[in-house]
Write a structure and sequence with these properties.
This protein has 328 residues and is mostly helical. It has 15 helices and 4 strands.
Length: 328
């Protein structure tokens, strides 16, 4: 766990007053964006301005009641305040590492929760090392927990081959109105995928899933695909607490595939981006991201820099440069 600035720490403590969702079940990105800005080098004024502006649209958090063990109530969104009390007490009793080792394996099958946002929030909280934010993130994940009805059985072919096979099965799918997680569940429940095999013979590596996500996002500047990229970054942080990392990677691939399918079967999203964007370096990406008021731009740039340093693929820098150019 890393350190954070005093200003970021104070703002994260203040952010506890906000609910994890707002509007039509949209994720509250404030804690994640603050931590990303802090890592990118934001000063106290930048952090406070962002927090003040972003918080205007958020809802107040419900008052925590008596604690409730989430084991038998996973996915019960209304019990979020009681889950918060539970995780705060468990962390005080057993410590952060013990609670993460206990609960990440339980939550990993539902890593699609809130379109990856619950896992992302936990990953940022782990990096920040703030115990209360970790408790809130765990409660958020438990309350929005949802699994995808896709087989974990393996089949022949690589990730791209499997993805293309499934895309052809869904060519006539027409989506109902909904947010990202609604569409992921809708596509996963499509009768055309009943019994379909979505996993490669050997469990995919994180590099392979992250590479799939990056290539998809580079081809299309798409809001859903952005979340697969940032989700893979978050998984890299959270996976250290997974008991069975190979199985955890299968759940990641399952969720990434479902999210990708929601994009490629929609006719309006099939055209790849052919635009050329100027390449800029790591420092310039960080500096420009600090000027943005868009939480998704900030998080994408932060994830892109982290993943570039992990894998060395310059396509991460190009993806960040494109997002910044569009933002400006």
């Amino acid at each position: 766990m890393s350190t954070m600035s005093t200003a970021c720490h104070e703002l994260l403590l203040q952010s506890r007053q906000h609910a994890p969702l707002y509007g039509n079940r949209l994720a509250n990105h404030l804690p994640m964006a603050l931590l990303a800005l802090d890592r990118l080098g934001a000063d106290a004024g930048t952090l406070r301005r962002f927090a003040d502006n972003y918080a205007r649209k958020l809802l107040p958090a419900a008052v925590s009641g008596s604690e409730l063990d989430p084991h038998d109530y996973l996915g019960s969104s209304g019990d979020y305040p009681r889950f918060v009390s539970f995780f705060q007490d468990r962390i005080r009793e057993a410590g952060v590492d013990a609670v993460l080792h206990d609960w990440v394996p339980t939550l990993i099958p539902g890593l699609a929760a809130s379109a990856f946002h619950a896992m992302i929030r936990l990953a940022y909280a782990i990096e920040g090392g703030l115990e209360d934010e970790i408790a809130l993130a765990l409660a958020y994940w438990a309350s929005e927990y949802v699994t995808l009805p896709l087989s974990l059985e393996p089949a022949e072919g690589g990730l791209e081959q499997i993805a293309d096979r499934l895309r052809l099965k869904l060519d006539q799918h027409v989506f109902k109105p909904g947010i990202i997680i609604d569409r992921m569940l809708e596509i996963a429940w499509d009768p055309a995928l009943a019994g379909a095999v979505v996993q490669p013979l050997a469990a995919p590596t994180l590099r392979e899933v992250a590479g799939f996500a990056l290539r998809a996002y580079v081809q299309r500047e798409d809001f859903t695909l952005l979340h697969i990229v940032t989700g893979c970054h978050a998984f890299r942080i959270v996976q250290r607490y997974a008991n069975d990392k190979a199985l955890a990677l299968r759940y990641l691939w399952q969720a990434a595939l479902a999210a990708w399918l929601t994009v490629v079967v929609a006719p309006a999203s099939r055209r790849a981006s052919g635009d050329s964007w100027p390449e800029i370096g790591e420092q310039a990406i960080a500096e420009r991201a600090l000027l943005s008021s868009d939480d998704h731009v900030i998080k994408l740039c932060y994830s892109a820099l982290c993943e570039y340093r992990e894998y060395g693929d310059p396509a991460y820098l190009r993806a960040a440069a494109r997002k910044l150019a569009l933002d400006s």
